[in-house]
Give the backbone structure.
Amino acid sequence: MSDAPPETMPTDQELVLKVIPMPSDTNANGDIFGGWVMAQVDMAGAVLPARKVGGRMATVAVNEFVFKQPVKVGDLLSFFAVITRVGRTSITVKVQVFAERLHAYGGRVTKVTEAFLTYVAIDEAGRPRPLPPEAYQ
C-alpha cells in the first residue's frame, strides 16, 4: 500500500459509468487489460456529448491517455466526465477513472486513468456536421 494520502473522487464532474472488471478482462500479468479500460473510457466519454450532438457521432481522437495505476479484478471503477471544449463539429471530454480497492487496502480510492477524447457529430454519410445551437449551452 502506498504512503500517499487517499484520493477523493471529483465533485465537479459527472459520474457517467460504474463497472467492476472481471477475471476474463485480465492481461498476461493478471491486471486488467489496458484495451478493456480504454474501451470503457470511450463509452464513458461519449455520454456527455451524446446529450448535445443531436444525432450520430464518432470518436475521432484520443488526445491523451494516461494509465496511472493498474486496475485489479474486483476494483469498483467510477468514471467521471466533464466537457472541456465545444467546437463547430466536435466536443472534447476529460474522463477520470477512480478505483475503489474493495478487496485490498480497506476500500482505498485511487485514480487509475485519465484521458481526453474528442467526439465529432456526423451526418448519415459519416461526414462531420455542425453541432446544433443547444450544444453550446
In short: Residues 14-136 form a domain with the Thiol Ester Dehydrase; Chain A fold (CATH 3.10.129.10). The chain has one helix and five strands.
